[in-house]
Amino acid sequence: MDIDVYDFDGTLYDGDSTVDFVCFCLRRHPVLAPALLSMAAPALSALVGRGSLTRMKSELFSRMARRFDLDAEAALFWRENRTRAKLRAFFRETPRDLPIVVASASPEFELRHALPLLGEVTLVATRVGADGALIGKNCKGEEKIRRIREAVGPFSVRAMYTDDAQADAPLLAMAREKYLVSRDGVKRLE
Fold first, then answer.
1. What is the DSSP string of 84-130?
2. 137-189 pLDDT, tens per residue?
3. How deeply is 150 buried, as exposed, middle or buried, from its count of CB atoms within 10 A (0-12, 13-18, 19+)?
4. What are 6's strand-pairing partners?
5. Which band of pLDDT confidence, cut at 50, 70 and 90, is reported for residue 122?
6. 3-class state of residue 4 by DSSP
7. 129 phi and psi, to 5 degrees?
8. How far apart are CA 155 and CA 126, in angstroms?
9. What is the Cα–Cα distance from 7 to 140, expressed in whole angstroms?
10. Which of 33, 60, 173, 182 is the most buried (most CB within 10 A)?
11. Using an 8 Å Cβ cutoff, are 83 and 7 in contact?
12. What are the angstrom distances between the C-alpha of 22 and each of 26, 49, 67, 80, 114?
């Protein structure tokens, strides 16, 4: 099956939706602040490649899930106009002559609430249980390819859209057309 693939954060969404979601939850549940503040060092370690991003995300979402329903908060997050306003217009203007897969390291529980705004797409994202623990691997790099294959079967990529050519290098290598998305627009890579 020939498909077009889009990364989500920084590509379809202007920024990091998970960071925005956590900030949204902090505004609604200030009691969460001390629990999240204690995660600053592990988060920084994971971001610079010295710690496990999967473990850090699992701990973050677990701490949040102990205080509220993650899925319900995500639904509220995507009802906010300021969240919806961060979806980039180019996606709506791009031809849809092939099936579209949105592949993201952001949590599935959060992004599934964005699907009505995106139209008919297949979502492949990091799986998180109701308790906040990650189910399987963080959906990044080679894991995106494995998860797309799991979702749609054998596939080839006509076009790949991303804001991070390094993180999405495995999918870009498969794509016949490669696009880098930034605040300045969409640029085709050679």
1. HTTB-THHHHS---S-EEEEEEEEHHHHTTTHHHH-S-EEEEE-B-T
2. 999 999 999 999 999 999 999 999 999 999 999 999 999 999 999 999 999 99
3. exposed
4. 102, 161
5. very high
6. strand
7. -75, 170
8. 20
9. 10
10. 60
11. no
12. 6, 21, 13, 14, 16
C-alpha angle 45-50-54 in degrees, rounded to nearest 5 = 75
**Single-letter code of the amino acid located at 81:** N
Give residue-wise pLDDT tens across range 66-86.
999 999 999 999 999 999 999
Query: In the predicted model, what is the mean pLDDT of residues 96-122?
Result: 96
Whether the CA torsion 138, 6, 183, 84 is positive or negative: it is: negative
153 contacts 147 by C-beta, under 8 angstroms:
no
Start-to-end C-alpha separation, the chain: 23
Cα distances from 171 to residues 60, 149, 182, in angstroms, run 27, 12, 18
187 DSSP β-pair partners: 180
H helix runs in the chain, sequence order = 17-28, 33-37, 40-47, 53-65, 70-79, 81-84, 90-93, 108-111, 115-118, 142-152, 169-174
The pTM of the full predicted model, rounded to 2 decimals, is 0.92
